[in-house]
Design goal:
The protein is of the alpha/beta class and 146 residues long. The protein has 2 domains: 2-66 and 118-143, Rossmann fold (3-Layer(aba) Sandwich), CATH 3.40.50.720; 70-104. 45% of the residues lie in helices and 14% in strands. It has 5 helices and 6 strands; from the N terminus they run E-H-E-H-E-E-H-H-E-H-E. The protein has helices spanning 11-26, 46-56, 72-89, 97-104, 121-133, and strands at 2-3, 30-34, 59-64, 67-68, 118-119, 140-143. The strands form 2 sheets. Strands 1-2-3-6 form a 4-stranded parallel sheet, with helices on both faces. A two-stranded parallel sheet has the order 4-5. Strand 1, helix 1 (11-26) and strand 2 form a beta-alpha-beta unit. Helix 1 (11-26) runs parallel beside helix 2 (46-56).
Length: 146
């Protein structure tokens, strides 16, 4: 079963209840959890679902994608709009992400000097498909640097 975080307070509580229900009432034997790169077992958020997987011994795979390629054009479009608005308000001191990419051929992220890959949603779907359908277990997490 493929799991994504619902938009509710303390989502891990409902998700862990759902995992127990799926296992016991419908004999679901394998779960794929999509989280973020910062998730760790036991930490608030999806880390609590991950911890539940480890404690209950279910067959699981945690996917932790980073930045999505599909959002890059949106960032570029919005940065062009922001730059136009910046010109209108005479605040020319800040560069928009689009102008930085154009002028410096770089994309700056919150990762400092660390490298971070951009991934495609179809790649995440392909890994999830294999994690759910392969005969062997995938009881480990996958980050987007695969």
């Amino acid at each position: 079963m493929y799991l994504m975080e619902p938009v509710v307070a303390e989502p891990w509580k409902r998700m862990n209840e759902f995992v127990a229900y799926a296992r016991h009432e419908h004999e679901v034997g394998r779960f794929v959890l999509v989280s973020g790169t910062s998730a760790q077992p036991g930490k608030p958020g999806m880390g609590m679902v991950w911890k539940n997987f480890l404690q209950t011994g279910v067959d699981f795979c945690v996917l932790r994608p980073s930045w999505f390629m599909a959002t890059l054009p949106v960032v570029l479009y919005l940065s062009r709009r922001a730059r136009a608005l910046t010109r209108q308000t005479e605040n020319l001191s800040e560069e928009s992400p689009g102008s930085v990419i154009k002028d410096h051929s770089k994309i700056y992220t919150a990762c400092g000097a660390g490298r971070i890959p951009f991934v495609c949603a179809t790649d995440i779907a392909a890994v999830a498909f294999h994690a759910l359908t392969d005969t062997k277990s995938h009881n480990y997490n996958r980050t987007s640097d695969l």
